[in-house]
């Protein structure tokens, strides 16, 4: 560790200001140095600005800006004399929404660094990007000028919330090239039009901070004075306006919470509707409430089975996607018809369609008539049905109907199914298998 670096580290530890992140000491593990500093629970200003769900009112925005300027002014007047690495990433936000400047100094440590991450250089002043020798022009005054440029980028970032160079039609490396090698007097800078309803003072300050000649950039105290119109009516920083600010932030959070609850309720209702389509209502409600669904005996129900005549042959001459579209179109028609009768769709397996009446709600002796009427409507519907990919092929159904007793129950946990068991189910299936083509 060199003498200059050791001196700089001592200066950094000695810094004490409410707008500068306190450093308590360093851990030296060559070639790296780790700083032990105050933890800021709200992380960096960059992360806050990128959070689109967090609406920042003017009080937040002005407080952030003024906090950065107060911390920067202190550093420029301290023995250290500069920040040297100012960006929204190094502006940390504590629990009281106060901005603390971090990752400052250590210029001698950074002299030998080769930063390959172009995105981390988006806040760096053009004159520093152009240096071939990093030891060239590293005076405190020149670094203060560079800090003011970096603040101008952060100011635009805060006001636009579009990132340090939001809206630029170039990559990070292309932006850096334009900054290093400008064309004549055409100096590339962030787009001020991204700032909605800008205050004239903010626009003038951005332009002043972005001056190409470092000596023409205002000092921090002048920048603070230029931005004073933005703070009109405010007492000071966020701490001075904390109660009012927290009330507004609380209301903002309540709006976000209400929005999330509405989304959650919508998803829950969608899940419930899907569950009700898969299971009988009383079974679905029981499962939703964590209750066990007991098997139940029904002494008299009517069961219906049907399949498509020639389905195997048709499938062999069709693509899987054509088969899926065909079955979906057909069963959509069937499902719509079922809504007009007291029947329950049990399941579909391939081209087989199964329904029952008298379960899960008993309906006396009406179950046979309901199934028969439904079957007639299904037969009627297929006379006009056209198979999309085989429009000239007639559609024929084979049906089987049987009345008798069954036992019902829910089978499975991950994908529960409402099933019917008993000889009546077998008889209905056999009636369909051996039935005449219609």
Structure keywords:
438 residues, alpha+beta, Transferase(Phosphotransferase), domain 1, Alpha-Beta Plaits, 2 domains, five-stranded antiparallel beta sheet, two-stranded antiparallel ribbon, 15 helices, 15% strand
Distance between the termini: 94 Å
Task: List low-pLDDT spans.
Answer: none
Structural class: alpha+beta
Q: What percentage of residues falls in helices of 4 or more residues?
A: 40-55%
The figure for the number of domains is: 2
Query: Which fold name fills CATH's third level, the topology of the largest domain?
Result: Transferase(Phosphotransferase), domain 1
Order of neighbouring strands in the sheet with most strands:
6-7-5-8-9
Radius of gyration, rounded? 37 Å
The mean pLDDT is 87
Number of separate helices:
15
Characterize the largest beta sheet: strand count, sense, and whether it forms a barrel. 5 strands, antiparallel
What order do the helices and strands follow?
Answer: HEEHHEEHHHHHHHHEHHEEHEEH
- Which percent band covers the strand fraction? 5-15%
Overall body shape: elongated
CATH architecture of the largest domain: Orthogonal Bundle
Within CATH, the superfamily of the largest domain carries the name: Transferase(Phosphotransferase) domain 1
Supply the CATH class of the largest domain: Mainly Alpha
Number of strands: 9
